[in-house]
Structure prediction request, 251 residues.
Amino acid sequence: MTQRLYLIRHGETAWSLSGQHTGTTDQVLTKHGEATAHALGERLRRTVFDHVLVSPRSRAQRTCTLTALPALATTELDLVEWDYGDYEGRRTSEIQHTTPKWSLFRDGCPHGEMPDQISQRADRLIARLLHLSGNIALFTHGHFARALAARWIGLPVGEGRHFFLSPASVSILGFEHRTDRVILQWNHLAGGIPERRRASPVIDRAPAPPPAVDRWENEGGEIPQVYPLHRSLDQTTVASPPPADRWPTAW
Prediction:
């Protein structure tokens, strides 16, 4: 099947920077969020898209506009973010004060959506997307995008907790051998504008260790080559090197 899904998370908002769960609340992009969305658009415009689907939330709509793809855009309700219910606007650390060890991907949200509901929504969307062909841009949100990627390769929604996703990033879902659903690329950021990190409330702490890759290089090791995860319909998820001509050529 000739199809690639370009999974695009919207640009930074005040709440995405502070770590507050943003579901139904409409948030505008920060200046940094607009700059990164515009930079991402410069990369996306190198690809010819056959379909562009956008969450109805204004932060996703604005991101689409800044990438200069809105002429093709259709609003898709199933691309909205996880409904956080009672946890809307709250940080994970705040929630865990009253509900220790709470995990969104395992426990869901009271008066919001539960993992099985997110799984059903992702599967419903995937079923419709499989009837389309070509390059498809999906402007969506962080947690739902992670759940969608997990379901694309046949994993439970809960495994989406392992797929970290930055604002104004693009990930590519597609196929290998025409039938195996794969993640071709994950969490690509536009060059030249790094992601801003959340300020930590912890003031007095030991210096953070260097990144794993830096430690590996400094200790004389070799950086291992990373291959995309893929899953056959009747096999477990594995990591294997694809042929060179299987990699996305536009990125």
User: Anything to note?
Assistant: The longest helix spans residues 115-129. The longest strand covers residues 180-189. The helical segments are 14-18, 31-44, 58-66, 92-98, 104-107, 115-129, 142-152, 212-218.
